[in-house]
Design goal:
It contains 5 helices and 12 strands. By secondary structure, it is an alpha/beta fold. The strands form 4 sheets. A 6-stranded mixed sheet has the order 2-1-3-4-12-11, with helices on both faces. A two-stranded antiparallel sheet has the order 5-10.
């Protein structure tokens, strides 16, 4: 019942985390069928959403319809996660990073909360013919959004107007991941026609060395 993008990223995560009963996983989504699948496979998973007060009620209702009335919605800012260092064995984020103005701060936080030997699985809009990422919009000194190219909005279940994309990513995202401390980073291109997985579903896998010391997060413009 999941779309191809989620099936690819969750399938990769399942291969990376062999111990489904004890693996500690953080997902940058919670009120979604993908997170319901994740909790079913990895009971120690934690998810969150980033939302306004008005959106919170709608997300809570949807989450409880998916996971039961006892489910509680978590709010997290990916650029300033509340979790302790080295809290998780894996982090998965599906089409979230492009909506974060300071995406490098989010990557640094993902690295910080990963335990040594942990993995990041990430999907974002990918310009596979471009070395450099495209900054689509930014926040100016007055806190206002400044569009640098034609605005692009992605579908959002709690926002009729959609959510603005600040970035489209090129191959240099791998360099940024390595600069944030990851030992390795690669774009993966799956191909599994029997599962309706065809070309174009690029997915990032980044790995934190088993010997990495705790990483101090610093917010930087990339």
């Amino acid at each position: 019942g999941l779309n191809a993008r989620h099936r690819v990223s969750l399938g990769l995560l399942a291969e990376l985390c062999s111990d489904s009963e004890t693996a500690r996983i953080y997902a940058t989504e919670q009120a979604s069928p993908a997170f319901r699948w994740l909790r079913g496979r990895f009971p120690e998973s934690i998810g969150s959403e980033f939302f306004t007060e008005a959106q919170g009620q709608l997300l809570t209702e949807y989450l409880q319809a998916l996971l039961g009335e006892e489910a509680r919605l978590n709010r997290e800012d990916a650029t300033d996660l509340s979790f302790d260092d080295e809290s998780f064995d894996a982090v998965i984020s599906s089409d979230v990073l492009e909506h974060i103005p300071d995406y490098r701060a989010a990557l640094e936080n993902f690295f910080r909360v990963l335990a040594p030997g942990g993995d990041l699985v990430l999907t974002v809009p990918f310009l596979d013919a471009s070395q450099e990422s495209l900054r689509r919009a930014e926040i100016d000194a007055d806190g206002e959004i400044r569009h640098l190219v034609e605005p692009e909005y992605h579908g959002d279940p709690v926002s009729p107007e959609g959510v603005l994309a600040f970035h489209s990513f090129g191959w240099d995202l791998l360099d940024t991941l390595r600069a944030c401390g990851f030992e390795s980073a690669q774009w993966c291109l799956p191909w599994q026609p029997s599962q309706a997985i065809f070309s174009g579903l690029w997915t990032v896998h980044a790995h934190k060395s088993a010997g990495d010391p705790p990483h101090k997060t610093e917010s930087k413009e990339s």
